[in-house]
Amino acid sequence: MVRTIVGANWGDEGKGKITDVLAESSDVVVRFQGGANAGHTIINDYGKFALHLLPSGVFHPHIANIIGPGVALDIEKLLAEYKSVIARNIPTPKLYISDRAQVLMPYHVDFDRFEEERLGKASFGSTKSGIAPFYGDKYLKIGIQVCQLYDEDILRARLGSAVTQKNVVLKNLYGKPEIDVEQLISHLQELAERIRPMVIDSTLYLHKALKAGKTVLLEGQLGSLRDIEHGIYPYTTSSSPLAGYGTVGAGVPAREMKDIFCVTKAYSSCVGAGPFTTELFGDEAQELRKRGGDAGEYGATTGRPRRVGWFDAVASRYGCMVQGATEAVLTNLDVLGYLDEIPVCIAYEVEGKEITDFPNTPTLMKCTPVYTMLPGWKSDVRGVTDWNLLPENCQKYIEFIEKQVEVPIHMISTGPKRSEILYR
Ligand code: GDP
Question: Based on the domain organization, do 152 and 53 belong to the same domain?
């Protein structure tokens, strides 16, 4: 059976924590897209961790953690992260890398930076981790798969051809030094040796595991609204964080995907550029930002203050729909305990009309939120694990959101720690 954890919104919904919780009852955890550009915060018995590339199953020694073929693999960052996690006395995790995953090159990071510099004010708010140039090259078919690192002739030929193009742009568009192919090849060969014991045919591994009745957990990064097809293009990422893509990016049969957990916060937060209809500013934003997450709403990868806003039912319903969610998981409920009344966006107003279906990006940019006010519960629900112990207004808030997103909510997170979870 395959279970999938994905985000309903702009990312940072708390998927890492939920994956850490559900990993306990899984055998394999797989990352299927994206790269080191997002962060998953996990707080468990070993401490607090911000994972970027490592699957969130690494804290359970019984779990096989896989970097799937759809991931943008920055080998240096993966190794550094692995080392830093091990250094904190966790049992050595089982980590495997798909031989078909493609390698994020140092020049992808450079191109990301140079392009954002060139765009200036029109930039996309990239994390400058090289993700867009990486996926661009993958679809131009000038990427390098992990398996190709171990064949010097193939590597030299493919890299030589890719770098010829790169150097023209580096020199003429950006005015930067050109890439030295030979130096790059030896660097890559050295990295390839270091990961050699972890490299496997992960698709075969997963198919065998599923045949043997194992439970596989796919861990998405970012969220629906950052999907390259269905998100707020062009303010999206360059891959697909949708559960449907999980079957491709991980390499599992679609018919095996049974549960799709779509994680959403009890309010909204967003890192990066693009339309964000319920965004708050000023003191109201500062208050919510300060109280949000485990230590305020600041990006796990970039440390940037996150944009925050009220719960957006229009966007979240759409987010759950495109994920094909079988259930929504509500996180950060504890954060809202300070409010007398809680606004929830139930529609958008655009050109004098009210709409409740999430529109395309040009229309979205003209939308303003229509709020309904729900009564607050004015108490601290942090760590509550029993539905009956939640204040009535808090239960009503959850029930309201459940109705709005049109999928059941069975799991509710009431704090950043692994144990702070309520099953309804
Ligand atoms: P991910 O990328 O979806 O894994 O999300 P992040 O880890 O980037 O952001 C989620 C933030 O919310 C982190 O700071 C988590 O520690 C925190 N968090 C997760 N669940 C809860 C919760 O129920 N309550 C609170 N207060 N913080 C939470």
Answer: no
